[in-house]
Amino acid sequence: xxxxxxxxxxxxxxxxxxxxxxxxxxxxxxxxxxxxxxxxxxxxxxxxxxxxxxxxxxxxxxxxxxxxxxxxxxxxxxxxxxxxxxxxxxxxxxxxxxxxxxxxxxxxxxxxxxxxxxxxxxxxxxxxxxxxxxxxxxxxxxxxxxxxxxxxxxxxxxxxxxxxxxxxxxxxxxxxxxxxxxxxxxxxxxxxxxxxxxxxxxxxxxxxxxxxxxxxxxxxxxxxxxxxxxxxxxxxxxxxxxxxxxxxxxxxxxxxxxxxxx
Length: 262
Fold this sequence. Notes:
Keywords: Transferase. The chain is of the alpha/beta class and 262 residues long. It has 2 domains: 13-130, Glutaredoxin (3-Layer(aba) Sandwich); 136-243, Glutathione S-transferase Yfyf (Class Pi), Chain A, domain 2, CATH 1.20.1050. 49% of the residues lie in helices and 10% in strands. The protein has a 6-stranded mixed β-sheet with strand order 1-2-4-3-5-6. Helix 2 (70-79) runs parallel beside helix 4, helix 2 (70-79) crosses helix 10 (245-257) and helix 5 (136-155) packs parallel to helix 8. It is globular.
């Protein structure tokens, strides 16, 4: 259990299905900006909370970008599940790294057991909370789309890591003009084929959350929405996910708490 008296941690209580954040934690921290320190958000879902529910702790860097933990956060928020969102500064990584299975984050602790790899974490949570698809085929399709997003995340690493600003700008322009533009055309065809407003079947899956996390939370923040001008179905999907009550509540809270991520 996190020590609520610790000065190094910020613990905020938020109920995903209630209309207002829990006042016990929120009022005290309202208006404060997240710095580069370690901090924890503890999300409580009161109507689902019971003693036999798993205790989830999601650990990731305290990044100025949302990174590879955001999909797991979205799944947990959409499902209305309690978890601790633990973010630490890069200065603590050397001490934390040996405790992770593969020297990587995010990691998800489930009742003290540790699970690594961002898509593995997201897939586990999606299956547990009914967001993985209704049958084996739908689950495979959802995996396919989520793996595509993982490929796009990996493709964005070289320009993200480039230190020279001129070269970085050129690399990002090529990335958007080739990798992203081509993928948008392909995914638009798949959405037209599905004809349901969702990537898989007739209901929301973690694949839809993955596309929202990447195309809205990453690309729109950095590049604007012009790349969606010829992709009305993808834009509609992003808007549909953004409007989900639990997702809307989380993103509004996140955007106020972490303005550097916007």
